[in-house]
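Running co-folding for biotin.
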Amino acid sequence: MKADILRAIRSSTDYISGQELCERFGVSRTAVWKVIKQLQAEGYDIEAVTNKGYKLLSYPDNISGCELMSRVNTKWAGRKVYFHKEMESTNEYAKYLAEEGMDHGSLVVAEMQTGGKGRRGRTWISPAGQNIYMTLLLRPLFSPDQASMLTLLMAVSVAEVLHHLHSDLEVKIKWPNDVLIGDRKVCGILTEMDAEPDYIHHVVIGVGINVNQTEFPEEISSTATSLRLEKGEHVDRAQIILGVMDFFEYYYEIFAEHLDVSDFVEVYDSYLVNRGREVRVLDPKGEFEGVAEGINDKGELIVNLPDGSVRTISSGEVSVRGIYGYV
Ligand code: BTN
């Protein structure tokens, strides 16, 4: 009800009366007033004028469930938000919610993580109030071997949002799923799946975006960046989260029709930082070097070797480095 009232006040260009809110949501005037008081205490500047009603003058940088659900415009992605100020890991919480039967498209969001997880067992540093830590819960109807492509869909969704909201930034993707500004990482994605050989119970896609962080630990200070560092100004987090939900839902629905990434190859490759660059493929069966060409319909990276042969590599097996550094 709180998110509904906030949405109603937000979408009204003029004052909206207490009476109208009571009638629309079937609650008492006291209940409406209590919600208004709560929102004001959380930093929403809501003007209350006798005989006119309420008007939202400004709102805080807030990624609470109420804020997100009052602004979401998707059909299913992120329509239900589970927000906590502190979590161990949004991926872990999303897995717990999956076991509890929560819906496809539920979104878990935290202000900080005490045990944020990165890929390959690394930790994801997750300070409070600055960044985005979120996990989308999916219940796909396709087979487990198609699920790795979801990570690429998320990477391209994040890249698209950052590019559309901040067209002055050079947004790139390092295959398969790191999003960069220039040659520094701004976003990491961790996808985890619970499946049987031919059936997916659920997939959780965790996304960490460095938004307003200005200092990084020494070990990543030369390879990490944030939107604030790149733009030189504070950046609104909710707008990014909602934009990612919009793009992801759009791309997911197209993907679910063909079950490959053929419709996104062009857009993905347009962001691909490795494209045309020399890469070293860290394959456990033997490292090799070549020039990355782009991705194929299965999301595999196409690498041209010096002897003229071509190899395709899939994301689960190997990692890719630039010959001269991170990219
Ligand atoms: C990477 O190593 O690049 C992946 C990092 C993924 C971090 C995000 S933050 C939200 C979600 N919860 C986690 O514990 N990890 C992911």
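Result summary
The two ends are 47 Å apart (CA to CA).
Residues 275-320 form a domain with the SH3 type barrels. fold (CATH 2.30.30.100).
Job closed.
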